[in-house]
Design brief:
It contains 16 helices and 16 strands. By secondary structure, the chain is α/β, with parallel strands linked by helices.
């Protein structure tokens, strides 16, 4: 089916925008697909026709169509033209159902898996690490050199505990996009998000306390809780919109809960993202039961479509939400620049910062602040979001192509992790051991649970640039999973 004409939907292109003409053409067509004007299977206008409609060159239209192919929105058919891709997705996992009981956090399995030696050429599909190829390394290196030369005495001296004012000002500006009006003095610079939530946990809990977490939960938080002697209460979590608020209210009513910890937007490992109404209702529950929340929003800037989702902190009226984030997933994990917005706990967090590390390194703070200030960060984010979305689509397609029919996978709308579930007696720890023999790593489900749950699940990283090696690794994982299920059937 041919769509015609496109002119009413496609207004003239702008030469003043930062994006190129072919990117603007691609965005217009992508918007029509997203809105349902163009449906799966529809034929797009010919290159010549769209060239005439938009008054651009044929090469511009071709580049736009190639970009949309790379993003997984359209497909070229020889001697026929371009069509909106008919995209099937794996079924999603259902809401998790962890044990409704408080338990100690055992990380012995996690440590064993993390310490497992891998070959230098292993394909790291288990670690939630972005590909450094996506980062503006040359620009960051240049900025680091500039700040080191500009004031060498300052960058080699102790700084203030809250961090460099330049960084805190720039972070405060960026928080407006998350729906938060925050003064720079309310921000504490940290060595990444990990230190931010560690400081927060130490501030609002004592050994033996219970912390409510999503289930499955980010395994590094379980490590921090174990080191602090904290217990976990895992709550049911739908894969789309985050933790069950009815289960949370029941926990508040029936348990002594010291704090909550949530990854609010595009969570790790399931990619859930709360809507504004649910975030507001969550904060109302926190206020009603006087419970603090530690919010990890490290993926909040990585939305694939639409505007950046608000932080839970945006709805915080009483200072109970301790907000934590960093540039580790968007700009540079190695610079270790993060921040904490502590609300009513500001003084305690600053004191704990002195105890733990005294200060965050000055030069990386200044380099990140300079990158924020020069206007390049938003342009970089647009490219990064497109790359992550494309890689997510490619991995979902590989799951459809190579994995057993019993496979389910989440459909995140941002971030760069996928949660995979395989039914029929599948064991993720077995797959982990088999995959290591093929120089591939995955993150088995039990790593993400304090109660040793999710034996049939695992997490995959979609932050690496797609390649033949990754495609082959996915095929190998699918074959190994099929063979495992076949062995289970034969043994039964």
């Amino acid at each position: 089916m041919t769509i015609s004409p496109l002119s009413p939907q496609l207004s003239p292109l702008s030469t003043d925008k930062e994006s190129t003409l072919y990117e603007q053409v691609a965005e217009r067509i992508q918007a029509l697909i997203r809105e349902g004007t163009l449906k799966p299977g529809d034929r797009l206008p010919s290159v010549r026709k769209l060239k005439q409609q938009l008054s651009v060159s044929m090469s511009t239209v071709l580049e736009a169509y190639r970009l949309l192919e790379d993003r997984g929105f359209i497909v070229a058919r020889p001697q026929s033209g371009y069509y909106v891709k008919t995209t099937a997705l794996p079924d999603e996992p259902s809401q998790s159902a962890p044990p409704a009981e408080v338990c100690a956090v055992d990380i012995s399995l996690m440590l064993r898996l993390l310490r497992r030696e891998l070959s230098p050429d292993a394909i790291l599909l288990g670690a939630a690490v972005p590909g450094v190829e996506h980062f503006p390394l040359n620009t960051l290196n240049r900025l680091m050199g500039q700040v080191m030369r500009a004031d060498p005495m300052a960058v080699h001296s102790y700084s203030t505990v809250p961090g460099c004012e330049f960084l805190r000002r720039e972070v405060a500006k960026r928080m407006l996009n998350a729906g938060c009006s925050i003064a720079p003095d309310c921000i504490v610079a940290t060595a990444g998000t990990t230190e931010a939530y560690y400081l927060a946990l130490r501030t609002v809990t004592q050994p033996g306390d219970t912390v409510v977490i999503e289930s499955p939960a980010y395994y590094a938080v379980l490590e921090a809780m174990n080191s602090l002697g904290l217990n976990a209460l895992e709550l049911p979590t739908p894969p789309r919109d985050g933790i069950s608020l009815s289960a949370l209210q029941s926990a508040f009513e029936n348990q002594s809960v010291a704090a909550c910890f949530l990854v609010s937007n595009f969570s790790n490992p399931i990619g859930s993202c709360m809507g504004d109404r649910k975030k507001k209702a969550l904060v109302e529950l926190l206020n009603q039961y006087d419970v603090p929340l530690i919010e990890d929003d490290i993926y909040g800037e990585l939305n694939f479509e639409g505007s950046r989702p608000k932080a839970i902190k945006a709805f915080d009226t009483e200072g109970r939400v301790i907000y934590c984030s960093s540039v580790s997933k968007t700009l540079s994990p190695g610079l270790r620049v993060g921040w904490c917005i502590a609300g009513r706990y500001q003084q305690q967090i600053e004191h704990m910062k002195v105890v733990v590390s005294h200060m965050t390194a000055t030069a990386p703070q200044l380099a990140v602040a300079a990158f924020f200030a020069n206007g390049g960060y938003d342009r970089h984010l647009r490219m990064l979001r497109r790359a992550y979305q494309q890689q997510m689509n490619q991995m979902l397609q590989a799951i459809l192509d190579y994995f057993p029919a019993e496979t389910r996978a989440t459909h995140p709308q941002g971030g760069h992790v996928l949660w995979v579930e395989i039914t029929g007696g599948f064991n993720a720890l077995e797959l982990f051991e088999d995959a290591v023999q093929h120089h591939i790593s995955i993150a088995p489900g039990p790593m993400f649970s304090a109660s040793d749950a999710y034996q049939n699940c695992f997490r995959l990283n979609t932050g690496l640039p797609w390649s033949e090696k990754i495609e082959q690794a996915m095929k190998t994982l699918g074959d190994l999973a099929k063979k495992q299920l076949a062995r289970k059937i034969l043994a039964s």
